[in-house]
Design a protein that fits this description.
The chain is mainly beta and 234 residues long. The protein is built from 2 helices and 11 strands. It has an 11-stranded antiparallel β-sheet with strand order 6-5-4-3-2-1-11-10-9-8-7, sandwiched between helices. A hairpin with a 3-residue loop joins strand 4 and strand 5. The chain is globular and about 55 Å long.
Length: 234
């Protein structure tokens, strides 16, 4: 099916109630790691529907002529406009761009802890006043190989500039997809902490992973909104 038809069907499928405010914005970001990832594009959010069109990027998904659409924070449609292909995925079990770690021989995860601190309002793009929040969470990964059990640890530290004027329900699994662990029970608790806090103008996320007895591996993700408008989809 041509990509234009896929997008049309997806937007129809993801139509949100008219009562929700629609917004659009430009963004850019980068993730450390090997290799590092850089990307930029334009986003649209209307209720629980969201769409991200990438104009540049060096990742298999976050690259030029790729689009990501979602509905109800549960289903993603990923469209490769240059090749005219698309596919759908459930967000259940999916992890974010810096929290993709799954331990080898993983059998479970536990010891989840989460906290959030609210700071002051800060200026953004001249006229917006998002509130800075500091979110931390951690959990243990349990692994087993030939009856021997061993463990890993994941620790996340995020600074988020969220504007409560724009309480978009597509967040956090839209623009804040970096904060998704891929473990349902943990992701539900993260979503509850962030629910209603508003649209993210900036994210600074650091994730450190350690397998018992090994070295720490840390990756960071930064995304910035460079233009913002509260106008409907066009």
């Amino acid at each position: 099916m041509p990509w234009k038809h896929a997008i049309a069907l997806s937007l129809l499928f993801t139509a949100a109630p008219a009562a929700h405010a629609a917004i659009n914005f430009d963004f850019n970001g980068e993730r450390s790691g090997n290799p590092p990832i850089r990307f930029a594009g334009q986003g649209f959010i209307d209720g629980q529907a969201s769409r991200y069109d990438f104009i540049q990027g060096n990742h298999a998904i976050f690259r030029k002529d790729m689009s990501i659409l979602s509905r109800d924070n549960k289903v993603l449609t990923i469209v490769d406009q240059s090749r005219g292909t698309y596919f759908k995925r459930s967000t259940l079990g999916m992890a974010g761009i810096v929290t993709t770690y799954q331990g080898p021989y993983q059998v479970g995860a536990d010891q989840f802890e989460i906290s959030i601190e609210t700071g002051e309002r800060e200026s953004w793009l001249g006229i917006y006043r998002p509130v800075k929040h500091h979110l931390r969470f951690s959990y243990r990964i349990r692994m087993k190989l030939e009856d021997e059990e061993f463990f890993g640890r994941v620790e996340a530290d995020a600074e988020l500039w969220l504007d409560p004027k724009y309480r978009v329900t597509a967040v956090p699994w839209g623009h804040q997809f970096g904060l998704k662990t891929g473990i349902d029970e943990f992701d539900t608790q993260i979503a509850k902490k962030l629910h209603g806090l508003g649209f993210p103008f900036r994210q600074m996320i650091s994730v450190t992973r350690t397998i018992e007895g090994g070295e720490e591996i840390t990756e960071t993700l930064r995304t910035d909104v460079t233009r913002f408008g509260d106008t409907p989809f066009s």
